[in-house]
Specification:
The chain has one helix and twelve strands; from the N terminus they run E-E-E-E-E-E-E-E-E-E-E-E-H. It has one helix spanning 138-141, and strands spanning 5-10, 13-17, 28-32, 35-38, 40-42, 52-59, 74-82, 84-89, 92-97, 101-104, 110-114, 120-128. It is globular. It has 154 residues and is mainly beta. The strands form four sheets. It has a five-stranded antiparallel beta sheet, with no helix packed on it. The longest helix is centred in the C-terminal third of the chain and has 4 residues, at 138-141. The relative contact order is 0.18.
């Protein structure tokens, strides 16, 4: 089974690498006895995330979710990076493909499947629903630091 590789860690950051997207199938997520998902890797714990979880997943042609699921408090955002398939929420089924972004509230009963002829690769970001306030915009929360960038000079 492939491991997440730590690139670098510091006081205010963590960086990891899951490997090439075409090699995601080498990862395996074990849910319990006789329940494992080939091609799925979580990175929240390895990067010491405190407000979100994130996973990468690769589905072979014809492969999909092992079960329908929902959450107690977590909203999820699915980003389709490659391939095509179908997504199901509360019985509604719709097509998805590279570039599709799907947000599902905690109570949404969801599943995904690859209907294409090549691997489908997705990223799933999981975070606490309703945790952002009015000031939590990219501009409202960000601040510019007036320091010189220290890239290597050519």
């Amino acid at each position: 089974m492939k491991e997440v590789k730590v690139i670098s860690k510091g006081t205010n950051y963590s960086a990891v690498n899951v490997g090439k997207m075409e090699d995601l199938r080498e990862h395996k997520f074990v849910l319990g006895p006789n329940k494992e998902m080939q091609g799925k890797v979580f990175v929240g714990k390895p990067i010491d995330a405190t407000g979100a979880e994130m996973s990468f997943q690769s589905f072979l042609p014809g492969e999909g979710s092992l079960f329908i699921h929902a959450h107690k408090t977590h909203e999820e955002m699915y980003i389709i990076m490659k391939g095509e398939g179908e997504y199901q929420v509360d019985g509604d089924i719709f097509p998805i493909s590279e570039g599709s972004v799907i947000r599902v509230s905690p109570a949404g009963k969801r599943a995904i499947r690859n209907t294409g002829k090549s691997n489908m690769i997705m990223i799933c970001i999981q975070y606490k629903a309703d945790s952002f306030g009015a000031d939590d915009t990219p501009i409202g929360d960000g601040k510019i630091i007036h320091e010189e960038l220290k890239w290597d000079k050519d």
